[in-house]
């Protein structure tokens, strides 16, 4: 079995199958068109240039199709790049499927939904429980397939559900240490906080923003969904406003997209849990790519910082 | 007829009826309780101290009751203050009613609703028209009575409706000059933009924030209302998202409470019209109180600026 | 008649006359020089690359000369680009003049000056009227030809005068709704606010900043001009300081270039009118280029926002 | 047994022992001196005014002495205040000791040091373990008695040690969920991060800043201590720099006092754990004072937010 | 001879002449009027309260009159305050004049003007020299009497001229070390940079802002003056724009009131010299009031910092 | 003798020796590798492209080796670039040494250390003198060779020592004018403020940041060094904390890397002197490259400003 594309080093030769993620056409300085391909497998992605692209090439090499590539790993402005010597589209006799190349959450969908269902089952407040269950059910299919974001963290298939599962475990561990926390609110907040992404984003693959996503954002979308769910279920208690507030405020500050800052204790903690899990995810993935004694590349979503892997971390 | 309370100058004596707006109890340095009264009439308000307040005084002098006061106008730290020499609660034989002391919009409720109805009637897009009419009707009573804010601008009875009427006229004048503007969107945006205040605020008198107002804010409340109205009316067109976006973005920037900035032309213009009308209202009221050649007091909502009234403005 | 250059789509072929706006020489990766041409007509501009440029090419293809180009419209990094197949300089037998390619205000100079003169004629305060008339007369020729800016808004021939005319109409419409406004101040402020640009900028074509423009800016330049005009006309009233303040403060905030914020009501409104007209101009031009259901490109001067054209805007 | 001072409501009468925390002399408007006393017991503190204070009063009523007070609970500008009717210093026959009035951590010093020692014992990296043990031992007495801060959070006797113990438990829970974390670094970071406070602050009671605290701050003080400890122990590995970095960066950002932001994964997590425990402490104490359906007073260290206690939180 | 008012300590008794700087009337909690007097001598000022002020007191105790006061120095909220036991207006037989109480620059006006004249004489560029000499001569009387500011630094009689003299010496010392600096520009910039204050401020005593000062500021006023001076002298060289730029940019940044930042080397250095001299003045005066081992009070114009006087600074 | 590389103009031909500073490999659009060389001599550096680089080229052309280049000066995106026609490595028979190409401070190391020693000799406070002398001696070799920074200012061999010498002269000149300044503190602060750079940076050539430099920064490194020096010398006076504070605060603000702002007068002045000398160095070097009447390129460390060289500066 071949190793993942991100594990090749500059100077190595590759002869492997990869999935085309995006294609952009350009005109080279010699006046001829070329294609910039982003190729991916489960481990990550690499840029490749197909020089002197023919009109046929433009038809054949399109996103979400598989190719067999032979070439060399080079370094271009500090990033690895694949220099293509030979490329062909995969055909039905090649032993590969698209799913082989897509990164997915490290947990099965069934296991995730089981776990979340158990957390919902633990809730004692019926209003909170019913609204949460209703909305999860309404969007369950998308929820189990969507990424948590288009980039930065959990940006893979089922990333949204996996982010929620990790946060639920974290919420439980924290609630064990600080018993004054309302677990129902915390669990419901975790489950609902990013559920609006199933409307904000276009889908699990080649994810972009929808018009509603651009103009309203997942936060306002979900506040609206909670309001409609409560009306549908005939629930009028203060739990509705509090749940809307949890979702509304989970980005923490107005300048980060929350029109109100957290004003309920569990909303404040939800903001923390969300951040902590997202950062652990980003840090682990960035540090995986470097050796002890090295710095990671700058991580945009962490204030553009580079992180150091101590030499004693073997 | 007596002149309004804000037109008395330091040194003058008053002997008039006023309405108690708020009462706060304090303990003086001699150890005796005193009451700080905010007294108002239609023209504005003044602070007064009732020293050596008896327990009976605390019972008698409560908000929303009328008093007859005899005293002097003093200056305390740059603000006028009423020094009470004599005070008594008004009784049934006094020729005064609460409504005589409350500032109201300079236009009758019937005239305002007529004018707004005419603007709705002019709309050509049925989806926009139906949602706007539905929501205005749902909250019409409160809409016609509420202030536009607890302070800063249009903070009087029917201030909300009057602000909307002024903005509609401004919207029309601007749309006449820039014909590319979509009048339906602009009028609907004006009518709906602050309608959530009827849920955010407690009512037309002694106005405070409700719990939902504090935790969600009028913007998110109204986005939700539009969503529910559309569902109720069976409207699914893009107009729903655009109207929600108009309301969502009318504060202009994340740090001013809009989770998304305006991303539709009419939303940008709505933000401008709202600002312009609010500022004209603040400026006119502040400049009314000073003479040519003087500066107004600092206006908090205008970045704490003082404004100068030129000497040639007689 | 040919359609404007910005209306061609990727894949189309062009065979048209265009004006060279700027030329930049580069060295291609094959070591040979190439020219990056910005070509324009009245509708806008497009980038083109002339590969393998000979020394003669560098002499022939210079700014403000007309060329006949045959080539294809391509897409390069999200922007259209013209791929030149054939190019030649226009000669005296070609039926084209430079003026055919320059964007100009959509109103004749005579009409604009007539309209502005009428507004000046309406002024009642003689000091304000005389200073305004004196300065407009002093710089009338440049005022009628200059753009309002080097980019962002009204960046075409006579853009400055057109911006002023639009603002005057807007000022009048607003003053009709808010009668407390001093029309004299407002009209004078509109006419003078950007007049310093005739000294700050180099001229109507290929506009750059002068040394005085860079070191002082149009605001300080104009404050000085008002001071000198008043001295010349023997005017000493407070109107001089107020007019200087109107110009000084019209950018609204220190960080936007106004050493004092607006502290006179009409100065505050002038800042609003200026912004509103500039934004309408930017928005209309950006939205013209996209179809319903699309977002515009990011507009730098509008906080880098993209604007959406609703699908129901046919 | 009497209830704590913060549990009295406006209108109640008190007749209890309290400890004087601070005394400030003022001159009343009648020209006579008065004393502002901050009185405390284990539950919190209250302000009291002693009007017409005699020279003897100034001698008798000094910080860290106990008084018997008889008086009424009033409300002054939204805060409760004790109106003294009668006051006398406690004497040897009164059944009270200073320790009865001081808030202390809810865990015994022995238990805390045992727990921390166990965590140090779990460390596998000898360099990290030896530096941590050396510094804890060097400052153990102060560490077990000092508060974690002069205000905001854990501002009571042994607050520093208690904050550390809570953070260690939190660190362990998080490390269980994210096994890539280096527990040695995390535990050492927790134990050392605020240890410099034993030099920055003056002591456990009436805590103020020392000169070194003001001019250097606990972060730089501790970085220096780690450097000296390593020199003393002859340790030169990269662990020294990493531990210094953990302490240096634990405030997260330059503007919050960390000259370098976290650039090691465990440093980032340490910053989170510190924040989470401090905020839980602040929130619990603020929410304890209000009833369901109420907002807390504004909490300065939480961006001046008020927090709401839901009505369904009985 | 008596010692200065700022050198009395809490507990001391005073029986001295002082000048009334400002008077503010208030109403005490017993309902009686009182006067807050700011009393000053050459060394500084102190607040005093005159309780139970009679109407005659209000007539007698007015700004810029001298009083004989007998009373005690107290501490009120961390500031010394004079508790008046006895006060009377000074009369013609008292051996005091107003000038005895006003702080003045520590250098004679003749010496300052001589020194400045010598610097102007050293200039080699005739355009710079003539403009500087013309403007200094035009405003010489006010220049020699005005303070440099209403507060913060050099806020005493002739403070403006003294600030300029100190800066000239500093400019010379720096130019000696960095010979590439243009001394003419630097000296002219120093002399002109704050000269607009003679129009911005009301005068040497009880200094306030004029209307032109408020609406334009001393920077724009002076840019205008340089323009008019150049026109008057028939000077058209680039020196005019550069001198205007030096004045324009000397606050360093837009948000500090300079519409353009320094863009000429000498303008950048002028900004530094101005700051350095102002800060030395503030620091020396604040540190004079404390003993070694103490911190000064917070200095607003130095970012509200307290400064420490080391114990080894005897 | 050849002129320096930065003095060649576009269009000129060069045939000179240069030192390779850095080499980066790229892949051209024709698929072939190329090398981007930064070539330098004492006057500065220039970029050059070596197209179609062979594997041998990659071995031969490495940093810190000398080459003979024949080629043309071109302009690429506003910057000069050297177009290589011919290149070869220098060999032992070429009359050049590496030191010929490195920029060094304009003062000999012996003269610098003599001068600094004289300043230390002038100190009167033995604690300050001993700590300063001890640390200078400990790191003297590196101190005399290191640059003051990797870029922006004094970024050449011995730049650190030269920056210190210039600052000492400036400190003396300022102390002469403001005699209240403590010269010992000021001189010691100047000498120690950047000494931590000998640990933060990698060395005098091809300077980068060390791990300790990245994670701690030169400020914290030096605070630690002062602490260890004091312990080593048995000095415990307040001078230790004050010296640590001087170094700690010399960047002036938290957001510029100083965890505490200057809180001692000499610390404030040190911050000024440091800035002034660094800015003079940047400005002189940027202005050297332009002619009168031109603007410099944007200087990043001066807020990205361009500076103008007046036409009368011949």
Detailed description of the structure:
Six copies of one chain form a homohexamer. The first copy, chain A, is of the alpha+beta class and 314 residues long. The first copy, chain A, folds into two domains: 5-100, OB fold (Dihydrolipoamide Acetyltransferase, E2P) (Beta Barrel), CATH 2.40.50.140; 109-284, Hypothetical protein af1432. Helices cover 41% and strands 17% of the residues of chain A. Chain A has eleven helices and five strands, in the order E-E-E-H-E-E-H-H-H-H-H-H-H-H-H-H. The first copy, chain A, has helices spanning 55-60, 109-122, 126-138, 140-145, 159-177, 183-192, 197-200, 211-215, 217-233, 238-248, 265-288, and strands at 13-27, 33-41, 44-50, 66-76, 79-89. A five-stranded mixed beta barrel of chain A has the order 1-2-3-5-4. In chain A, a hairpin with a 5-residue loop joins strand 1 and strand 2. Chain A is elongated and about 65 Å long. The two termini of chain A are 26 Å apart. The model of chain A has no long low-confidence stretch (mean pLDDT 92). Chains in contact: A-B, A-C, A-D, A-F, B-C, B-D, B-E, C-E, C-F, D-E, D-F, E-F. Chains C and F meet through strand 1 and helix 8 of C and strand 4 of F.
């Amino acid at each position: 079995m071949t190793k993942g594309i991100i594990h090749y080093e500059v100077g190595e030769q590759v002869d492997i199958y990869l999935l085309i993620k995006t294609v952009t056409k350009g005109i080279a300085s010699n006046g001829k068109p070329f294609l910039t391909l982003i190729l991916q497998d489960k481990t990550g992605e690499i840029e490749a240039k197909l020089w002197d692209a023919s009109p046929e090439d433009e038809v054949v090499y399109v996103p979400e199709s598989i190719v067999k590539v032979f070439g060399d790993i080079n370094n271009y402005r500090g990033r690895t790049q694949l220099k293509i010597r030979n490329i062909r589209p995969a055909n039905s006799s090649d032993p590969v499927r698209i799913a082989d190349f897509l990164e997915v959450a490290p947990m099965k969908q069934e296991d995730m939904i089981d776990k979340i269902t158990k957390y919902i089952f633990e809730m004692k407040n019926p209003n909170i429980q019913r609204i949460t269950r209703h909305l999860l059910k309404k969007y369950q299919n998308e929820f189990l397939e969507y990424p948590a974001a288009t980039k930065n963290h959990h940006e893979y298939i089922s990333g949204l559900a996996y982010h929620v599962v990790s946060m639920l475990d974290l919420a439980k561990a924290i609630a064990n240490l600080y018993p004054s926390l309302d677990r129902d609110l915390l669990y419901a907040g975790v489950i609902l906080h990013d559920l609006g992404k199933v409307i904000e984003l276009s889908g699990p693959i080649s994810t972009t923003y929808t018009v509603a996503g651009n103009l309203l954002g997942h936060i306002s979308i979900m506040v609206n969904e909670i309001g409609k769910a409560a009306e549908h279920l005939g629930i009028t208690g203060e739990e509705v406003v509090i749940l809307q507030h949890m979702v509304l405020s989970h980005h923490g500050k107005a300048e980060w997209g929350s029109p109100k800052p957290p004003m309920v204790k569990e909303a404040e903690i939800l903001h923390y849990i969300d951040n902590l899990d997202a950062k652990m995810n980003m840090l682990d993935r960035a540090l995986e790519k470097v050796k002890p004694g090295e710095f990671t590349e700058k991580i945009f979503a962490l204030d553009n910082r580079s992180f150091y892997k101590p030499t004693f971390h073997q």
